[in-house]
């Protein structure tokens, strides 16, 4: 692991298996750094903990992006999206009726509409 700035662009070209292997290596390195921290290690290694954690986060981000994209591509043919890919919005918005459900009327409502239409009044001046 070099000290130069880590580019996520390179990760996006890698295969998921390679990403997972590298992720395991990073997690192992983080465990080693934490044990060094407990055994009063040098400050240089302690500063590296944050870098390794950030790098792990970048790997996980890319892995999750790839998974989401594969699920999106698989779901293109179906009419419904998986729950975790749908818009979050608010609970009230998610629970409310759709436009077509709101437009539906009961048989009694239809009879009332048809048999008693709105009256038109001619106003005198």
From TrEMBL:
InterPro entries xrefs: Ribosomal_uL29 (IPR001854), Ribosomal_uL29_euk (IPR045059)
Cell division is among the record's keywords: no
Protein name listed in UniProt: 60S ribosomal protein L35
Keyword annotations from UniProtKB, A to Z: Ribonucleoprotein, Ribosomal protein
The species this protein was found in: Paramecium primaurelia
Example GO biological process: maturation of LSU-rRNA from tricistronic rRNA transcript (SSU-rRNA, 5.8S rRNA, LSU-rRNA)
Alphabetical list of Pfam families matching this protein: Ribosomal_L29
Molecular functions per Gene Ontology: mRNA binding; structural constituent of ribosome
GO CC, any one term: cytosolic large ribosomal subunit
Family: Belongs to the universal ribosomal protein uL29 family.
Lineage top rank: taxon: Eukaryota
């Amino acid at each position: 692991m070099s000290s130069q700035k880590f580019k996520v662009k390179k990760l996006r070209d890698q295969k998921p298996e390679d990403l997972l292997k590298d992720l395991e290596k990073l997690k192992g390195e983080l465990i080693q750094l934490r044990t060094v921290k407990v055994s009063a290690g040098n400050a240089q290694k302690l500063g590296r903990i944050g870098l390794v954690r950030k790098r792990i986060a970048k790997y996980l981000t890319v892995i999750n992006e790839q998974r989401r994209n594969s699920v999106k591509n698989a779901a293109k043919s179906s009419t419904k999206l998986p729950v975790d890919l749908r818009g979050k919005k608010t609970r009230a918005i998610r629970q409310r009726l759709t436009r077509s459900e709101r437009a539906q009327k009961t048989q009694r409502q239809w009879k009332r509409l048809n048999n008693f239409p709105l009256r038109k009044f001619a106003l005198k001046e």
